[in-house]
Amino acid sequence: MGKRKGLSPAVNRKNLNPLPATAVFKHSSSGIPDRRDKMAKKYSQFLLGLFVTFGLLLGLVLIIWLGAARYFEKGDLYAIYFDESVQGLQTDSSVKYRGVEVGRVVSISVAPDHRLVEVIIKLRLETTDTDKLVAQLKTAGITGIVFIELDRLDETGKVTGRVPPFKPPYPVIASRPSDIKQIMQGVAEIYNKIKIIDFEGTTQEFKAAAQSINTFFRGEKLNLTIAHLEKATLTLEDTMKKIDKIASEGKVDYILDETKTTLTEARALLKTAREEINSFNLPHKGEKMERLLENMDRQGRRLGVQMERLMGSLEQTTYQMRLLLERLENNPSDLIFGQPIETEEKGVNR
């Protein structure tokens, strides 16, 4: 009874049979990876590492290529000195020639004189007359990006930085103020001129002038002046009537005819006297008398010319007085405030 009974062979074989295939599959899927899962996981990690390594190498090559491209970039270095703010201008900003990009900004710094701003540019413009170029700061639209615009130098324009007070490291391209600075300078000049104007003094003078004009038109002097003008107009009108009466009666022509007749008779008398003196055979006395007669003849001719000029002046004066009367009848105030009457030459009957 105390001995342990052994298991029967039939029972032992039944208990030692292997598990079914479904049981093994279920056990492996519950958390124990097989060899294929391990291989797939290792393959994914390898691809990820390879992609990262390739990306790093590509980025490194790109950086080296860009740096080498800048290093081996063609072009010449030039210096530009601006006497204004270069706010918005940065390294690698564009340098354009009339809108075409021809270079870039290499460096920006303060000039050795601590007044100008030194901008070093690399220019790819194939030209030898860079001394005829002028640089100006420009703004690209509403973005606020500042670039350098190159153009041909206009000798009439204002330029700066052509001859800096120190030795520049590279050839210098002249510069001129930007459009914004020119506008601000114009506004400042206008403001300074406005400040000079004495508005208060001008206002006081205007008030005083207006008061003087008001006093003049309301005072007694204006009434007296108008009365004198009316009296002078009446006097001139009477004078013109008398002159018209003389002219209508033909007295002017009569005086001219009488003067001409007198001169003709005097000449005939002198001619007769000369003939009679020559018949006396008095050489010495004859010469004296002849000189006397010639002198009288010259005096007579001069008198005739003066009389003709006098009559012409009288006729012109009559014409001017007629114009004056017509003008005063239309506007009596022209006697004080009007312009002088334009004279018109008229021919005189001779």
The largest sheet has its strands arranged as 1-4-3-2-6-5-7
Q: Helix- and strand-based class?
A: alpha/beta
Low-confidence stretches: 1-16, 19-30, 344-350
Q: In percent terms, what proportion of residues is strand?
A: 5-15%
Shape: elongated
Number of helices: 9
The number of E-state strands comes to 7
What are the secondary-structure elements, in order, as H or E?
A: HHHEEEEEEEHHHHHH
The value of Rg in angstroms is 60 Å
> What's the helical proportion of residues?
55-70%
Compute the separation of the termini in Å: 197 Å
Residue-averaged pLDDT, rounded?
70
Largest sheet descriptor:
7 strands, mixed, barrel
Brief synopsis:
With 350 residues, this protein is an alpha/beta fold.
Which terms summarize this structure?
350 residues; alpha/beta; 7-stranded mixed barrel; 9 helices; elongated; disordered N terminus; disordered C terminus
Layout of helices and strands, plus pairs?
Blueprint: H1 9-15, H2 21-29, H3 35-71, E1 76-82, E2 94-97, E3 100-110, E4 117-123, E5 133-140, E6 145-152, E7 172-175, H4 179-196, H5 199-218, H6 220-248, H7 251-279, H8 283-330, H9 334-337
Parallel strand pairs: 1-7, 2-6, 5-7
Antiparallel strand pairs: 1-4, 2-3, 3-4, 5-6
Word description of this protein:
The protein is α/β, with parallel strands linked by helices and 350 residues long. Among the domains are: 76-186, no CATH class; 216-337. Helices cover 57% and strands 14% of the residues. It contains nine helices and seven strands. It has helices at residues 9-15, 21-29, 35-71, 179-196, 199-218, 220-248, 251-279, 283-330, 334-337, and strands spanning 76-82, 94-97, 100-110, 117-123, 133-140, 145-152, 172-175. The chain has a seven-stranded mixed β-barrel with strand order 1-4-3-2-6-5-7. β5 (133-140) and β6 form a beta hairpin. α6 crosses α8 (283-330) and α7 (251-279) runs antiparallel to α8. The longest helix is centred in the C-terminal third of the chain and has 48 residues, at 283-330. It is elongated and about 165 Å long. It starts with 8 loop residues before the first helix and ends in a 13-residue tail after the last helix. Mean pLDDT is 70; it is low at 1-16, 19-30 and 344-350.
